[in-house]
Amino acid sequence: MNWNALVQRINQDVEMTMGSKRFQHTLAVRDSALEMARRFDLNPLHAEVAALLHDIAREWPVKKLISYYERAKREDRPDWEADHLALLHGPAGALWAREYYGIEQNEVLEAISFHTTGHPTMGKVAKIVYLADKIEVSRAYQGVEEVRQLALRSIDKAMQVSVDQSICYIIKQGLFLHPYTVELRNHLLKELQNYDERNTGR
Ligand SMILES: [Fe+2]
After folding, report:
1. Number of structural domains in the chain
2. Among 40, 68, 96, 185, which is most exposed with the fewest C-beta within 10 angstroms?
3. Contact predicate 161/145, CB 8 Å
4. For the residues 136-148, what does the mean pLDDT come to?
5. Cα pseudo-dihedral 94, 73, 22, 119, rounded to 10
6. Ligand 1 centroid to 195 CA: how many Å?
């Protein structure tokens, strides 16, 4: 696969098909993800493609969105998820990426699929796309600066704080809390605890 040609093609497609606000957000996520990919020595082309495609299905007509989501559905997804349209564009977009662009790399597909809820098994490229979505330059919520600073030195620490913030926000809004998000949070805590123990010799 010629990744540079693919990036160019996707760039054009997202510009043509997205509203201008979402396109600007997508470019900002791309920039932030690329910066982290370089900092943490991850595949920059995989990060760029995933970032450009993360919201590809966000503005789709509901019928198309649900049809892709249903085909992409994993067995461990909760039943109530299908009633929450904002949660469907990740998995739908990942299936689109595979079928329309022929992308087979799991680290790209899972980054698109899990960028809204997270997932306990998500890899580093998925994590930086998740983070980029939260800290891109136009984001201005309370706590964003803390995540930006953490993202300069530790993907997992930045993830843990960002996921905690999301969980607090979801609870305050009275929304459904996704099991993937809870599992991810617990997984990150465990990983960070293991890291601390290794480094302090305890
Ligand atoms: Fe999204």
Report:
1. 1
2. 40
3. no
4. 97
5. -80
6. 30
Is residue 40 situated within a structural domain?
yes
**Site of tokens 């503005």:** 59
Q: Is 184 part of any domain?
A: no
State the distance from the centre of ligand 1 to the C-alpha of 58, rounded, in angstroms. 6
**Residues 82-103 pLDDT 10s:** 999 999 999 999 999 999 999 9
CATH of the domain at 60: 1.10.3210.10
162 inside domain: no
CA atoms of 194 and 69, how far apart (whole Å): 36
Ligand 1 centre to CA of 59 (Å) is: 10
Q: What is the pLDDT of residues 61-76, one digit of tens each?
A: 999 999 999 999 888 9
Distance from residue 40's CA to the centre of ligand 1 (Å) = 23
Mean pLDDT for 117-140 is 98
Q: How far is the CA of 181 from the centre of ligand 1 (A)?
A: 15
What separation in Å is there between the alpha carbon of 130 and the centre of ligand 1?
9
Between 44-53 and 3-17, two packed helices, what is the crossing angle to 10 degrees? Answer: 20
* Residue 136 belongs to domain spanning: 3-142
Q: Per residue in 150-194, pLDDT tens?
A: 999 999 999 999 999 999 999 999 999 999 999 999 999 999 998
pLDDT of 49 reads 98
Asked if residue 45 belongs to a domain, the reply is yes
